[in-house]
Design brief:
Blueprint (H helix, E strand, L loop, with lengths): L8 H20 L17 E8 L11 H18 L8 E5 L8 H14 L5 E5 L14 H11 L4 E5 L2 E5 L13 H14 L5 E7 L8 H4 L5 H4 L5 E6 L11 E3 L3 E4 L26 E8 L4 E7 L4 E2 L4 E3 L11 H7 L11 E5 L5 E6 L7 E10 L2 E9 L10 E7 L6 E10 L8 E6 L1
Parallel strand pairs: 1-2, 2-3, 5-6, 6-7, 7-9
Antiparallel strand pairs: 1-10, 4-5, 8-9, 10-11, 11-12, 11-13, 14-15, 15-18, 16-17, 16-19, 19-20
Helix pairs in contact: 2-3, 3-4
Amino acid sequence: MFSITNIGRTLLAKIVAFLYVITSVIFAGFPFGAGEDPAAPKDFTPVIRFAVCSDIHLNGEEDQPEAARLKKLIDFMYGYCADQSYTGFDALVCVGDVATTGYEKEYALFNSIIAEKLKEETQLMICTGNHEYIATRDYDASESARLFEKMEGPLDNHYTLNGYHFILASYDDNGKTFSGKLDWLEEQISSAEKDSGSKPVFVFQHPGPFATVYGSINWGDFDITKVLSKHPRVVDFSGHSHYPINDPRTIWQGGYTALGCGTLSYFETELDAIAGNFPYETENAAQFYIVEGDKDGNLRIKSYDLITDAFFDNEYYLTGLADKNFDYTYLKRKNRDSAPVWPAGTKAETYKNDKGETILKFTGAEDKYVVESYKLSVTENGIPFFSDNFSGKYMYLYEENQYEVNLGTLTQGKKYSVQIVALNAYAETSSPFSYSFTA
């Protein structure tokens, strides 16, 4: 696990911006991609389909929500596939942190769910995350590895399904890095490229390659980027960060393609985010990808929410990866976005709760992709009285675009002024929304 926690927010923001700009410009070129994201053609016909999830965090208790979510994911996939022209559910891929601590009862629960729900026609693919090693407190991985292998054999695997290659890399024996796996990974990718024509090569590991997908600054891995950056046809899937799957930054393209897989457990966001790293209702998280490939190597990737049984809007269509046709670079998507706007007729109001505290209620702003967060300030006679930063609700499809903020106990009869600014995923800010009221 890699975490940047001691660098000041300003410096960190500059580092992130520099890395995104440099990688996007070098590999994507100009122009920066105004307009719409690519869409799959209506006649897109898959020859392969698989689901990718991460960070299930089973604790061995059969009644935990995460166990029910994994079962629901598998059931949904078979139902979804049965209604498609291509009916295959070819693989279920879990990219680490299947377990919470690495205890045997957690693997036993996983095995029982797989035995109950997954059909023989669907290949199970898994790799380790950091939580698989927690049971061995000193990071002597021998015991954790032994238990993990009870699920699916070797810790590293290379599969071929319907002309597509799947390469899964687990941590080294120290449970922390991939430094001892780099030669193996390079060999596997090179071999897959020779065998697969112009098709993408799928790579899976737990932490995201550093400075790529949303979350990889705080929770990314340096080592694996040394290999992946040489291979533009790689489509890499990772987890570890628990960052929401429907944020536009969860797909990245530079020297290759990378996607963050969200979580079936709980959400996090940036460690130094203005709204804090655990968003509103953080435990209501159950997101995963459905990946489909056609005979020519074009990919359609859909994002699904098991909490609401609905697809997110962020569907991706990847084509021409062998020619470095990267439509989802940071700069291209940023250029397609614009600052959040307040809907026509946006209103705010206040009411008092049972404790006599004043609650501000308002309608949220809108953005092409997501409204990531809000900054709110309250003044009384021009003097700062209250301020708050909080996350948007974009990761919760069940939530209306309405917000409530507890302003505390106010002085009756005094006039207060509220100003709210909305920020999107690219830190672009809305015009301020202003509201005044008398307590």
